[in-house]
Amino acid sequence: MNTYYDKLMEINGADELKELVKSWEILSCNLSKRTFDVPVFLPDLFMYTRPGYGNTKLISLIAEYLDSKQNLMSFYGDVKFFEFKLEYCSPGSNFSELYRLMESIQTAAGFRNEYKGVIRINVDDWVGHHKEKHFLDFLQFLQINTSYWFVILTISNKSENDDTRDMEAVVSMYLRITTITLHMPSDSELVDYAAKHLIKYGLELDEGAKKVLLESIAVLRNNKYFYGLHTITDLCNDIVCSLFSKSTDVEPVIKAEMLNDFSADSEYIKRTVLKIKKTVTLGFNG
Description:
Layout: H1 3-9, H2 15-32, E1 44-48, H3 55-69, E2 81-85, H4 96-109, E3 117-122, H5 133-145, E4 149-155, H6 162-172, E5 177-181, H7 187-199, E6 204-205, H8 207-221, H9 228-246, E7 253-254, H10 267-281
Parallel strand pairs: 1-4, 1-5, 2-3, 3-4, 6-7
Helix pairs in contact: 1-3, 7-8, 7-9
């Protein structure tokens, strides 16, 4: 069985992506039975995601999966994937971002003369500006080179609305795309995520502890600045540090009373909400 396929199937809130990967499995199987004189190119991706979803890890898994199949696309260069944020450039200005993207592609190629792999490009800044010449030049550049790359265009801080759907339509005039939406996992799924993270440190949550975390996560998630899996990972790491700093003989099963410092009404949760707000408003929400 394919390890990367299994990991992709474990991701919560990614049902549409899972269906897409399942279709890739079928495509790969069919390609292995046939020989074509022309290549079969995968459609690129237009992906609605969320800040704090763990996008880098997700893109890494997609790249590793595609590489492992061997017949879905070719990889060539120093890395299998890289990420790029296309900053906004106003009309009439020098489109420096396109040159910066070209430099990033060359860096990914390394000493080789070309790059073949996955490129995730965040286009948040261009929502509402997607009919401007610079953005159309960017799409034309991708169109010319799409046979070399699997492009994943992401919108991570905008909800699906008239502007984003119109952008999607504009993109589809230049690229063959599959559109998918990633949803933030539910509170209970986030507790499961926390449990899996804590088990790495030999710690297991009992039902009472899970209830405490469920209530705490509900408070964090209710804040509009909630930063997804990053926030939950930070929470788990703080729990680990706290428990291992209090005793040299830590109980492997975490009970509710052991999480008093992390309860929904704790100072820790209040501080975390403020910390997330400060981080996101400063712009660290890629």
